[in-house]
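Predicting holo structure, zinc ion bound.
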Amino acid sequence: MLDDLRGPHARETARALPLALGALGALPTARETAAFAAGSIAVAVVFVESDGSLEAFLPAAGQYGAPRTVTTRFEPISRPSGQFNKDYRLSDAGWRWQIMDKLGYAHDGIDDSPLPERAYADSVRRETGADWAFVLYVVDSLRDADGMFPDGAIAYTADLYGPYMVLTYDNDGYRFRHFDAVLAHEMGHVFGALDEYAPPRPGYPSTGELASGYLGVRNRNALKGGTTDLPCIMRGSQATLDAFAMGELCPSSVGQTGLRDRDGDARPDVVATRPRFDAVRPTAVNGGVFTVTGLVREQPWPRGASSVGTPFRHDISIFVPHDLQFRVDGGEWLPLVATDGRFDEPVEKWTLMTAALAAGTHALEVQGTTGEPAGFVKELSAGP
Ligand SMILES: [Zn+2]
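Done. Tokens:
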């Protein structure tokens, strides 16, 4: 799996995001189909076979995005992989574009940017309700003489954060029984982890001074320029297989994939977020009844600075505030009401109405949850 992280490593920078995020707030945008490896992940598996037919498109029965077999005119295993070539038939675009066409995801026909798999992954994510998604092409290599692409690649990922990876059945010397270890390594790339092997060519992003991932974590376990020498699935080759067998992911890769857990509560920081309550305004109506309005917003874990890959342009959380409730004087918890009818956005206006309160001071408690619960207590003074 040398040289297995393709792409320019910052392919979609300029047009990655509309400037106004609008109602999405901290939620991932359509282009952000992978940011950190916490939450749920949908994998759109595409089995690629070539039998010379352009017609035999055989989607598997069942859920949208479920494993499916797609045939292409080109034999993927006999095509060079990886970097886009002006003659698309000489790169993996020769068969990927056909598959994306059949699934209804347009490619641009010029430079393969944006990658059509990005839109496919995003729709699979939305249809399945997952937090993230990527496309896994499984290429039938068993009938190929040496199980290798012409340029030697047997497994690779398009770029940091996906949106697709290509694996073969026999994975060159790794063989099918190590499919899981190779998949784990490539999934590391999908969620921002860099390789740690010595750069196979100048400029390859696997050295120790680089920072990557949503949190912008240094590649400290790199063989070249690193400061640690720990077992890790990102080390490549036999070291990846050994580390996978032991379940070893070095702290650099843990950080780069967003799984860092600074407070040691067994929940990654990026999903240990809390909502914040603002603009709380109680209004005494009559007869001791109070109406209280306010805002609740998710506070995403702040992104770090990366030196490689498409930069994140906003702080991201996979949660919106939910389970919003209130009680007075330690009584029964009652639900808050979303002003727009549903708590489904990162920032929501809410309102509540108390029962008639007797003259005197009362404690109003409000709470809600994103990654973790949070809330506040406010004093209400009723009566003459
Ligand atoms: Zn790699």
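The pocket of zinc ion is lined by residues 1, 4-5, 185, 189, 195 (CB under 6 Å).
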